[in-house]
Design goal:
Layout (H helix, E strand, L loop, with lengths): L4 H6 L3 H32 L1 E4 L3 E5 L5 E5 L3 E4 L9 E33 L4 E32 L22
Antiparallel strand pairs: 1-4, 2-3, 5-6
Length: 175
């Protein structure tokens, strides 16, 4: 048995698995970011008319009238739709190996004696058959599992528009 169980475990290409997992995550992260940027572009380019204000007037006679401000085209981002961004928060490599080695030795000896006896003559023959068989067996079973966990993260701070509210209504003095 030239290879030991310890050597079998050392031969698992763990650095290669870690590198491939890291490169796979980097490629997937890039694809996720590109998807979020494309979604942001679509949301910014999609405009819809929005009435930004309605004026309600109550007349002295109790009548009420409404006047809409003219509609303004705003993007979906301006009304608050923001694309979701994701980030890989965790990655795990789990490798399990079962190694079973067996050695069996089988030896068999057959002895046969044949004797003949007669009136003044006696003879005997002995036959010996020896066989020796040695068997080596090795079974290796392995499983690996790669786990990743993604979490949503806030969009980049400059993606969301800054909202300034300006109220130009005159302030009435208390009576």
């Amino acid at each position: 048995m030239a290879v030991s169980v310890g050597q079998e475990l050392l031969d698992v290409p763990l650095p290669d698995m870690v590198l491939k997992l890291a490169l796979g995550i980097a490629e997937a992260q890039k694809a996720l970011d590109e998807n979020s940027v494309e979604t942001a572009k679509v949301l910014a380019d999609t405009k819809l008319p929005l009435v930004m204000g309605v004026t309600q007037t109550i007349a002295a006679d109790g009548g009420v009238s409404y006047v809409n401000a003219p509609p303004v085209d705003v993007s979906l981002i301006q009304i608050g739709l923001i694309p979701t961004f994701y980030q890989f928060a965790e990655a795990t490599i789990e490798v399990t190996m079962d190694i079973k080695t067996t050695l069996s030795t089988e030896t068999s000896i057959k002895v046969g004696v044949k004797a003949q006896a007669g009136f003044a003559c006696w003879s005997a023959s002995v036959a010996i058959d020896i066989s020796h068989n040695r068997k080596f067996g090795k079974e290796v079973h392995g499983t690996s599992r790669l786990l990743t966990r993604m979490v949503p993260v806030p969009p980049p701070p400059r993606l969301a528009p800054l909202l300034n509210v300006v109220d130009n209504r005159p302030v009435k003095a208390p009576a």
